[in-house]
Write a structure and sequence with these properties.
Length: 80
């Protein structure tokens, strides 16, 4: 699997996310949520976190990945 995942320094978002040269959407893997927006600076996030969701066969086929690779991607998104 070829994974490219880069995060903007201050926008709490991904600047690049591709899987096997396919433009990827983090929504396919879960959702992000700011857990502390009250303490965020202007135009920033307080505590942005990503929470993964269970895989679907459709997503595995879309990105040509295995279940283990899906879980690896979710772990990367949670860490970033």
């Amino acid at each position: 699997m070829k994974l490219e995942l880069k995060v903007y320094d201050c926008l709490c978002s991904l600047s690049k996310f591709t899987i096997n040269n396919i433009d990827a959407d983090y929504d396919d893997f879960g959702e992000k949520y700011d857990h502390d927006p009250e303490n965020a600076e202007d135009y920033a996030c307080g505590d942005m976190q990503f929470n993964s969701k269970p895989y679907t066969q459709e997503i595995l086929e879309k990105y040509k990945i295995t279940v283990d690779e899906y879980n690896e991607i979710c772990n990367e998104l949670e860490e970033k």
